[in-house]
């Protein structure tokens, strides 16, 4: 209990006592423990009250920020697996891992019998289409001179249309094999084509992030993955969200992503929140889309993520400086009573919003809390 003599203590002694009280929690096990909390309240003199500052607790609206970690991944909307469009052994690789490639750039060549079959099918389709169209035109002329029946003339037109459809399909087969335009022109003009090598080309502009084939390897059309090409100007960060924080994260929330201590914050947006819980980590994955024009973020890199919820919440917030711990490490604050004295009130700590704690229970709106000088009040209480 504070007395009149308490206010006449020398300033140095008071400061030393306050610092000693601050360090109580770090005393060794061999030191005498702090005395248990007395039942009586703490009464301060007018001079002693100069060492404390009081705030009235009021309901406050705030938005939570979730501090967590994440892993960088490709933006699957800007990454593609390059499959072999034809079968055969790989002759050579022309793109290196990590190389930037343009759309249509050569990645590898394959010696494929598919080309010989496709070239022959196109030549045959060209010849058949030309012949059937010539016969159809002839039957049309004969029909006008009663040389053929109308039924024969209609059949000739149908045969010509079908042959031209087959020609178009054969051309599409060559295009699917990435045959260059000059080779197609040579076939159309009935010039010999000796090439039997196929070229695997990049379907998009980006970085070769995976190389899955080697020279001599046999690839199968449409089934063998050869490369992965990704546009890394935008990436996904898969952030882990735990427990009650899941409800605070929504699509559209902004986020700061930091690769290391010295890196500048990259801005991103939550674009998906998983509906499933990871069975290994018991977390929910929030996908954050981040612009990565400088390519600071790399696949599988661990990053720190700070998600800023756009959902407003209401609660009682008190400064961190108001929170003290008792002998059992339970948090409490000092409340000013109607008679001017101060009493301990144990509280439950919730979300920390910067330098303030949300107090889910233990306080009511309108109560007056010691927000500065709580250690001093504790020291006076221990006397």
CATH architecture of the largest domain: Beta Barrel
Kindly provide the radius of gyration, computed on alpha-carbon positions and rounded to a whole number of angstroms. Answer: 39 Å
Largest sheet: 6 strands, antiparallel, barrel
Q: How far do the termini sit from each other?
A: 6 Å
| Helical percentage | 10-25%
Number of domains: 4
What kind of assembly state do the chains in view correspond to?
single chain
List the uncertain runs: 1-39
Topology as a string of helices (H) and strands (E)? HEEEEEEHHHEEEEEEEEEEEEEEEH
* CATH structural class of the largest domain: Mainly Beta
**DSSP helix count?**
5
CATH topology of the largest domain: conserved putative lor/sdh protein from methanococcus maripaludis s2 fold
Total E-strand runs:
21
Mean of the pLDDT scores? 83
């Amino acid at each position: 209990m504070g007395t009149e003599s308490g206010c006449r203590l020398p300033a140095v002694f008071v400061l030393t006592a306050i610092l000693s009280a601050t360090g109580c929690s770090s005393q060794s096990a061999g030191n005498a423990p702090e005395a248990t909390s007395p039942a009586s309240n703490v009464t301060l003199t007018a001079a002693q009250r100069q060492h404390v500052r009081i705030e009235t607790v009021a309901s406050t609206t705030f938005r939570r920020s979730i501090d967590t970690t994440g892993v960088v991944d490709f933006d699957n909307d800007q990454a593609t697996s390059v499959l072999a469009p034809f079968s055969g052994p790989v002759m050579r690789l022309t793109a290196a891992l990590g190389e930037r490639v343009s759309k249509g750039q050569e990645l590898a060549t394959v010696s494929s019998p598919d080309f010989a079959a496709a070239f022959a099918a196109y030549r045959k389709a060209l010849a058949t289409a030309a012949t059937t169209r010539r016969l159809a035109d002839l039957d049309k002329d004969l029909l006008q001179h009663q040389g053929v029946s109308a039924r024969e003339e209609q059949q000739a037109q149908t045969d010509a249309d079908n042959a031209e459809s087959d020609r178009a399909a054969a051309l599409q087969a060559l295009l699917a094999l990435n045959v260059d335009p000059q080779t197609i022109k040579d076939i159309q003009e009935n010039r010999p084509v000796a090439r039997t090598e196929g070229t695997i080309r990049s379907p998009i502009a980006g970085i070769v992030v995976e190389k899955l084939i080697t020279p001599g390897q046999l690839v199968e059309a449409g089934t063998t993955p050869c490369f992965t090409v990704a546009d890394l100007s935008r990436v996904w960060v898969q952030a882990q969200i735990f427990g009650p924080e899941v409800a605070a994260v929504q699509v559209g929330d902004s986020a700061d992503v930091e690769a290391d201590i010295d890196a500048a914050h990259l801005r991103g947006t939550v674009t998906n929140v998983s509906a499933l819980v990871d069975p290994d980590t018991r977390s929910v994955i929030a996908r954050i889309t981040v612009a990565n024009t400088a390519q600071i973020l790399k696949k599988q890199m661990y990053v720190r993520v700070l998600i800023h919820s756009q959902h407003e919440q209401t609660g009682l917030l008190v400064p961190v400086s108001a929170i003290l711990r008792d002998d059992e490490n339970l948090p409490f604050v000092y409340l000013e009573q109607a008679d001017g004295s101060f009493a301990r009130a144990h509280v439950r700590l919730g979300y920390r919003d910067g330098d303030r704690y949300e107090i889910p229970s233990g306080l009511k709106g309108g109560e007056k809390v010691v927000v500065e000088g709580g250690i001093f009040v504790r020291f006076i209480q221990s006397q």
